[in-house]
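Hello,

Following up on my earlier ticket. Below are the two sequence lines again, exactly as submitted.
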Amino acid sequence: MADALLTVSNLETYYGPIMAIRGVSFSVPAGAIVTILGANGAGKTTILKTICGVMDPLKGTVTFERREIQGLDPDAVTRLGISHVPEGREVFPFLSAAENLRMGAYTRRDAAGVARDLEMVYDYFPVLRSRADQRAGQLSGGEQQMLTIARALMARPTMMLLDEPSLGLAPRLVKEIFEIIVRINRDRGVTILLVEQNANMALHVADYGYVLEIGRIVMEDTCARLLDKEDIKEFYLGMKSSSVRGTRRWKRKKTWR
Amino acid sequence: MLQLLLNGLAVGCIYGLVALGFVLIYKATELVNFAQGDLMMLGAFTCYMFVVWYGAGYWLAFVLAVVTVALFGAALDSAVLRRVLGQPQFAVVMLTIGLGAIFRSFASIVWGSEIYTLPTPFSARATRIAGVTISHEYISIIAGTVILCAALYAFFTFTRVGVAMQAASQNQLAAYYMGIPVKRMFSLIWAISAGVAAIAGILLAPVSLIDINLGFLGLKAFAAAVLGGFGSIPGALAGGVTIGLIELFSGAYLPQGVKDVAAYVVLLVVLAIRPQGMFGTIARKKV
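Thanks for your patience. The regenerated structure is below:
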């Protein structure tokens, strides 16, 4: 794709001898929300870690704004404009929420802009304003998740990598967080690569989706079309198809068509 | 009595400063640097060298020595210790003990194994206040510790880099994601704790004379760090002062020989009652 902001091609990443990513290629157009679906251990998190530089790929390239970035240190990747929201609310537990947010803007030098953006993220997440002086470790799980998203936003990224933002949150909170993700994308033009197990939610907010199984991409399409596919319905959305006789075959094979 | 208190406080401050070095490095990198005491020894010798060999003034020599040792600490991190990150703790412990031995033999080659005195503006001066003779050397140790701790506190709380260092030690991975250059932060931590050790060595020099075995004081400082709760900065200082006071008071009031073990007895008792140390906390991650 010519207008792609981020292009990943033939990526292979290993954990020691174990091949976690088996030659994955995909691209994310500027301004879009793209999602990668997959079960546990499919390699979703590994892809994000490889993009943001925490893991180095053995083969393949990651191109961001026409520049190859694979193998760079994570702080260098962040400086280029990719913010990673890691899985599992990695906050700085003994710093206050406000200090956590300021750390998000570590790479920036414009104090006035940082102050403006602090107000901006408080508008997105009003609960964080009332928790500003509390230690991040004392916030609730949902607040910590909001804090990590807000913190990533403070770097004023071109692109955000979101790893399982719904993990372990109540359904109402999940909905709220996804609404904010969409707002960030629409209002601020931040391109988003979203990795999720909550396929229903992800397919409804994203524009384009990839399905990852055991380190390979098995299917890709626009999210509207993905929602209609039988395999997606059955294996990712939990909708059961029944035959004419009302009974279900013992096991349906995935065909990815 | 008051005299004893003051001297104990001063000795305790030295332990506290070296313990602070242990804790800073441990909190940031989860390594225990057993060469901390020997870095202190290097600081004292470097200062001595600048004053006696090159005729620098005390204050100039002080600054030069601290900067030299701090740079050396940073170099040590980037050249040697970065390679053992993630290796078993045992390897790191052996490595730093080995480094300590190397520093000692380096010192004996360069400066010789005699005992030196460092002339300072505080040497052999005393003030009498309310019937108590206070020697300036001890005052300088206490004042130096207070100033240094205030400066470190301000640095870690109010500066961008200081807060980033805290962040890097609390959650290394998240710090990487924020674009904080974590490796450089670690080198900076090493520089700071080597610098603190050097300051301790220089402050101690007029009281205890300089020789290559000055570094073995590091063992007692290690006990102080454990007593305070390894990983707690106020704990390190409190532990140091406690051990200093215990040592001097038991030396004065208890039979000969108790002085050397008293600190360890207290350490054992405290650890039996409160295994996490005086100021230690058992951290749990919220899931």
